[in-house]
Every structure is written in C-alpha cells, then in structure tokens.
Amino acid sequence: SRPQKVCLCPFLPVHPLKVSTCLYIIQHPAEESRVLRTVPLLAACLPPDKCKILVGRRFNEDRYPELATVCRNPNTLILYPGAEATNLEEIAVMSSSPSVMIIIDGTWSQAKDIFYKNSLFRLPKQVQLKPSISSQYVIRTQPTNTCLSTLECAAVALSIMEKNKTIQETILHPLQALCSFQLQHGAQIHHSKEHLLKNGLYDKPMPKNKRKLRRMELLVNNIKI
C-alpha cells in the first residue's frame, strides 16, 4: 500500500517463511493508526496461520475463547521482560515441540498496561530476549539502546525457537529497507531517549510528573526500568 518507488515488496521473502512456531500479536489499538508500524511487515513474511493479530486493550475468556485456550497451553510462551522471565534461549534448548508465542505490540507503557490488566497473559511461561543487536528501527524513538521493535523481537525469537539464524535476517530485511527509504526522503535518525539524556541532547521540557521524571533519572543512571 505504499507508492511504487518506495514499495517494500521486493524486500519480502518470495514465499512465506516455513516455521513451526505460531505468533499471536496482541496489538494496542493505537498501533493500528501508525503509518510506520512494523507488524504488517512481520505478517507479510509469515504464513497467515503462523501470525495472528488481535487488536484491543482487554482480553477475557468469554470474548476470546481461542486465545484463552492458547494461554492455557503448556507450550505457549509470552515475550515480556521482567524478574519472572526466563531467557528464551534456555527454553529453546529444552523444547523440541512446536510452540506458540504471544508478543504485545505497543509502546512500553501500553504493553505494560495490557500485560498487567489481562490475567490471561500471566498464564503462559514468561520469557525475555538477551539480544546482541541494537534496534535498526532508527526512525522511531526507543526508550533505551537495547529496546527492539515488535518485528525485531519476533525475528530474534523465531530464529531462536526455530534454530535458524537466517529467519532473523529475512524478517529484518524489509525493516531495513523501510528505514532506508524514510531516511532518503527526509526522516531523521532517532536516538533512544537514554542516549539523548546521557549526552545532553534531550531538547524537550522535562516532565512535571514525578513518576515520569524518576524513570528518566533511572535511564541516565543505567538502572533497568
């Protein structure tokens, strides 16, 4: 749905990737209206039955019986970092059966809201990534230098679960093209908020809200938030 001269189709795989892992993308409604969102690129790389997108803020068993069944499946994982989360690479070593992975798509505050206000999402085993890559989604500001977009998280996670590094490279290809096109047409590279604060480059008024101000102080002092 982009103009032909910036079309991303040539950067997508010729055929959807063959994967055994099924992704459920839980998308905050605000992401639907973002022009440069990454989930459509992810979905274009995978078979429809391996990338299911559910949009909303609240998910209960009555309205989403299929999702409830998925959340109760012992092979289902949810990608959400925290003290309770296990490194995904450790899980992948022990598991040989096909898995389902839930990924929340939204800003960090939106993802946190969805995770904690939906009890279904605390049923699956919680996992997190220890990526060695920095985000290539440079046309959107991330909170820290280690934050990844939804597409990048999915690319890393699938490459681990499927034990196939080329999956990550294939899924990242259209994202790299998207950022390249945008930069060629006037977009600016967005450094993370952490980078801007540490280097005295943050040019917006500091928040008056004490909680937000405290989060910024933690970023500057290298404390995980």
Automatic annotation (TrEMBL):
Domain DTW: 1-187
Keywords, sorted A to Z: S-adenosyl-L-methionine, Transferase, tRNA processing
Reaction catalysed by this enzyme: a uridine in tRNA + S-adenosyl-L-methionine = a 3-[(3S)-3-amino-3-carboxypropyl]uridine in tRNA + S-methyl-5'-thioadenosine + H(+)
Superkingdom to which the source organism belongs: Eukaryota
One Pfam family linked to the record: DTW
EC number: 2.5.1.25
GO molecular function, one term: tRNA-uridine aminocarboxypropyltransferase activity
UniProt family annotation: Belongs to the TDD superfamily. DTWD2 family.
Name listed for the protein in its UniProt record: tRNA-uridine aminocarboxypropyltransferase
Native organism: Pteruthius melanotis
